[in-house]
Write a structure and sequence with these properties.
The chain is an alpha+beta fold and 57 residues long. It has one domain. It is elongated. The structure holds zinc ion (ZN). The site of zinc ion has 7 residues, from helix 2.
């Protein structure tokens, strides 16, 4: 009952969006990169709008 819950909290790294540097998860001093929802959506749209490679066939 007296055990602090800090261990689990600190074991998780801080996650920052690799695109807009937005902090997704606040954790330890260790930083991990991810992609936030708006950026993931924008990326998906960008890919969808990209011209498809013409098949050589
Ligand atoms: Zn982002």
């Amino acid at each position: 009952m007296d055990k602090p819950m800090r261990r689990g909290y600190l074991s998780r790294p801080t996650v920052i969006c690799a695109w807009c540097d937005r902090v997704l998860v606040t954790g330890s001093s260790q930083v991990s990169h991810g992609v936030c929802e708006p950026c993931a959506d924008a990326f998906a749209r960008t890919v969808d709008e990209l011209p498809r490679h013409p098949s050589a066939a």
